[in-house]
Backbone:
């Protein structure tokens, strides 16, 4: 079993090719940009506004489609997932990431402080940060890490 999981993770890391010019170089999988937002984003004439979002380097984890019932912790920072980890990839210095994936439905998370997994988009059926990869298509998933932002 450990050898099987090692093989899957190794394939996942190998299949995550480099990015050129902020565009995907893969033919099928997921591509996106990770940004960080922190501070006050509320409209107010008195309060200083945050400077906006900036690209960040993060480790991105891709799991089989995950539902709230398969996650532990408090949204948007989860402590444990009961679904299968498919791949890990790190963003480049411009925040971009990509990963070759087979057609299917997945959930995507960034790794934050203390190893917590961040996701802030949810479907009505309880799916966490869902996306789908279709044959010969690259799905774009942009992630704005905003758990320290105020709106």
Residues:
């Amino acid at each position: 079993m450990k050898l099987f999981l090692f093989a899957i993770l190794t394939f996942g890391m190998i299949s995550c090719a480099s990015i050129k010019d902020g565009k995907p170089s893969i033919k099928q999988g997921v591509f996106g940009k990770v940004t960080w937002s922190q501070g006050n984003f509320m409209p107010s004439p008195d309060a200083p506004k945050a400077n906006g979002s900036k690209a960040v380097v993060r480790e991105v984890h891709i799991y089989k489609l995950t539902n709230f019932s398969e996650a532990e912790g408090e949204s948007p920072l989860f402590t444990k997932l009961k679904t299968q980890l498919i791949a890990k990839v790190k963003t480049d210095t411009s925040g971009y990431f990509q990963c070759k994936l087979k057609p299917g439905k997945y959930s995507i998370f960034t790794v934050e402080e203390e190893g917590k997994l961040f996701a802030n988009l949810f479907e009505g059926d309880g799916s966490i940060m869902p996306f789908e990869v279709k044959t010969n298509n690259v799905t774009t998933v942009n992630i704005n890490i905003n758990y320290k932002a105020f709106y």
